[in-house]
Design a protein that fits this description.
Blueprint lengths: L1 H6 L1 E3 H8 L3 H13 L3 E4 L2 E4 L7 H4 L4 H12 L7 E4 L3 H9 L7 E4 L1
Parallel strand pairs: 4-5
Antiparallel strand pairs: 1-3, 2-3
Helix pairs in contact: 2-3, 5-6
């Protein structure tokens, strides 16, 4: 799932070589993940479904440099006495870590 999240598609034969397991093992695992609704099986491998196929802890480290860069830009938009709505995403988590502890504002989150 981590590889699929990063690369958006998996080719069974290449993944087999990469992980040093048989293509049959890869196909069985891909079929199982497809049955769970986590991926979409295609002829040569699989593609991801939906916006995210992994949990928060796994996604937290994906594209971390971009997330921190966005968070650093966004934190300067938060002013004293602001009311901000923050979703529970991993990029927003990076933003929350940068909000100064002494900033007087109201944060609403799920």
């Amino acid at each position: 799932l981590q590889i699929l999240e990063k690369e958006k598609k998996i080719v069974a034969s290449k993944l087999s070589e990469r992980l040093k397991v048989s293509e049959d093992t890869i196909r069985r695992d891909l079929n199982e993940l497809a049955n769970q609704g986590l991926i979409r099986r295609v002829h040569s491998g699989a593609i991801r479904v939906g916006p995210a196929i992994t949990d928060f802890n796994v996604r937290q480290d994906l594209n971390i440099n971009e997330k921190v860069k966005l968070a650093k830009k966004a934190v300067h938009l938060i002013k004293e006495n602001s009311v901000i709505l923050i979703d529970g995403g991993t990029t927003n988590y990076e933003l929350v870590k940068l909000i100064p502890k002494d900033l007087k504002c109201t944060v609403v989150s799920n």
